[in-house]
């Protein structure tokens, strides 16, 4: 199966990917586009610009296009749409231009696991982190994925709890999906 783990920053995505990698040793893990681009020398603005998020969106689409079976993605195109819609310069982003490509590539995913911000929040943030952006992205992702406001048409599993509990929820979902 092709599984993407989505969520705002500092929500527990990478920790869940680590747990799932241990439990699904035959799966390949694809690092999030930010790190891929950074390793290639892409210079991100601080904070990232609309162009920076569009570059990550394009890389995420390319990653899905080239994906093998049995893969875990740290982020997917919907993550970057969430960031772009929450960005202070969101008017510079034309969602309608990207939607056909995103819908097409999302068909290659079997599941998006949404790691949302829990109440109370499990993640301690530093004073330098943008809590408002984090909350806005979380809200955008829930709108995009749970209400399917843009007809993305992908199966979504929202998880909660400890990293181990989240991984268990994913495994149980996979087991149910495999039952004829």
From TrEMBL:
Q: InterPro entries under this entry?
A: NadR/Ttd14_AAA_dom (IPR038727), P-loop_NTPase (IPR027417)
Q: Domain of life of the organism in this record?
A: Bacteria
| Domain NadR/Ttd14 AAA per the UniProt entry, residue ranges | 2-165
The molecule here is called NadR/Ttd14 AAA domain-containing protein
């Amino acid at each position: 199966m092709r599984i993407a783990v989505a969520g705002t920053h500092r929500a527990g995505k990478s920790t869940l990917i680590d747990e799932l990698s241990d439990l699904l040793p035959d799966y390949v893990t694809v690092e999030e586009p930010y790190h891929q681009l950074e390793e290639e020398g892409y210079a991100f603005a601080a904070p990232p610009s609309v162009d920076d998020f569009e570059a990550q969106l394009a890389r995420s689409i390319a990653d899905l296009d080239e994906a093998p079976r049995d893969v875990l993605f740290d982020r997917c195109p919907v993550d970057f749409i969430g960031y772009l819609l929450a960005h202070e310069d969101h008017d510079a982003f034309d969602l309608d231009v990207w939607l056909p490509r995103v819908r097409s590539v999302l068909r290659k995913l079997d599941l998006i696991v949404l790691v949302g911000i829990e109440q109370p929040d499990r993640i301690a943030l530093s004073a330098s982190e943008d809590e408002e952006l984090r909350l806005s992205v979380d809200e955008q992702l829930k709108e995009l994925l749970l209400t399917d406001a843009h007809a993305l048409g992908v199966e979504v599993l929202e998880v909660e709890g400890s990293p181990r509990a989240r991984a268990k929820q994913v495994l149980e979902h996979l087991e149910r999906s495999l039952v004829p």
